[in-house]
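agent> fetching stored inputs for the dinuclear copper ion docking request
agent> found them:
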Amino acid sequence: MQNVAWVTSVALMAGVAGVFVMVAISARSTADYKIVVEKGYRLRKIVFGVLVTTGVVACAGTLGRLPYAQAAQEDTHQIVNALGYQWYWELSQETVKRGQPVEFRVTATDVTHGFAIYDADLNLVTQTQAMPGYINTLHHTFDRPGTYKVLCLEYCGLSHHGMIAELTVSD
Ligand code: CUA
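agent> prediction call returned; pasting tokens
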């Protein structure tokens, strides 16, 4: 989807640049100004129509696929409350099911921590901040079972590196 958006953006930018060049060239010639203006207006109408159509199509095609819209559709989601302390994590449950959406409700008791979930190969899977006074919700559906690690992504003091919890994703 990002590729499509990127190519579309580049194409539209090229189109706009093309119009600029055309206007610059026709402004230099001694052509009848009225004809140029009529041509420009016609072109502008076409470009505007294309832009509006593209916008409407892009919105209709992508808005329904937002993560929040997806999360709302599936009501079988599991909720895990995550609390950050100096210097450990407290999870309301340490096992979640594969293939079912998980909603992490993340907060902190003392200072800001970074709630980051890594897979068995220590690749970052998903993350959000754990802040005192706020509950940040993080939606994720685990595709693969296994043992995941929760690490802290925000320097929070002496034993920041020691904030490690385990999360098991079961089949
Ligand atoms: Cu908590 Cu770094």
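agent> quick read of the result: The first helix runs from residue 2 to 28.
agent> awaiting further instructions
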